[in-house]
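Input record, target 12 of the design panel.
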């Protein structure tokens, strides 16, 4: 039985599509205290079944997704069907841009290979069980490319914010010499994320690719 299964059972019994719980309420359901990282880092609440077994046991396995609110020490759980609506909207907006996500990743790899003067290829870092978009042969350089847009072109994308936080956390765990995220499409996404959580980032650089200028700008 997974350590966080009681939370999943609780959510599964709910008749609501959205359930907001304070951290204290989550702890009361679980019967033990949350780790300090859950109170400090959005990445702990990331909806990733590959690297977060607690997420699978606690909510993903029961068809829910989490969105944490660290300022109010609370988390909002939403049934998967309601989250899909936002995701499909984002995909439509992205499809209307002049470059695809896959092409952006290829361009980002070329730019960052030149930036670090080393060839970068997709691969797994020995310290983290994840395939990164860019990795040097000596594992000293590791990064990922993100092609994001605001929801409907104007609203903050909470699901993507959680994904960014997750990747920052995973990059930090690699302990590589150079760690980075490079963004394309909508500059507001990484800028807004950094406004909220940039002070928690340790050693991960943020870049943005300007399509019109065909150049890369360092954000952090």
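The sequence produced for target 12 reads:
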């Amino acid at each position: 039985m997974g350590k966080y299964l009681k939370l999943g059972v609780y959510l599964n019994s709910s008749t609501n599509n959205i359930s907001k719980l304070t951290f204290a309420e989550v702890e009361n359901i679980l019967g033990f205290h949350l780790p300090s990282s859950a109170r400090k880092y959005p990445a702990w609440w990331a909806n990733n079944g590959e690297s977060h077994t607690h997420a699978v046991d606690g909510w993903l396995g029961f068809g829910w997704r989490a969105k944490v609110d660290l300022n109010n020490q609370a988390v909002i759980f939403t049934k998967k069907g309601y989250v899909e609506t936002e995701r499909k909207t984002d995909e439509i907006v992205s499809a209307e841009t002049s470059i695809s996500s896959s092409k952006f990743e290829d361009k980002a790899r070329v730019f960052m290979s030149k930036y670090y003067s080393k060839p970068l290829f997709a691969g797994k870092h020995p310290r983290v069980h994840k395939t990164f978009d860019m990795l040097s042969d000596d594992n000293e350089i590791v990064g990922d490319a993100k092609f994001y847009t605001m929801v409907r072109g104007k609203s903050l994308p909470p699901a993507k914010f959680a994904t960014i936080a997750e990747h920052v956390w995973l990059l930090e765990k690699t302990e590589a010499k150079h760690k980075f995220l490079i963004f394309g499409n909508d500059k507001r996404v990484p800028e807004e994320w950094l406004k909220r959580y940039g002070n928690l980032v340790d050693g991960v650089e943020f870049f943005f690719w300007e399509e019109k200028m065909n150049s890369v700008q360092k954000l952090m």
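The two ends are 42 Å apart (CA to CA).
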